[in-house]
Amino acid sequence: MIRSIALSTFAFTLLLSNAGHADYQWGFGNISLNHLDWSQGTEDKSTKKDFTYLEIEGGAQHTWGELYGFFDIENVGKTGDDVRTASKANLRYYLGQTGFSVYAHAYAFSALGFSEQNRVLGLGYQVGGEGWSFKPFLGFHDVSQTYFSGSNGYMGGWVLIYIFKIKGHEFMFADWHEYEFDRKEAYAAGNGASKVSHNGAASIWWTAVKEMSLGLQYRYAQDKLGTPGSQSAVISTIRYNF
Question: What is the number of domains present in the chain?
Answer without folding.
Answer: 1
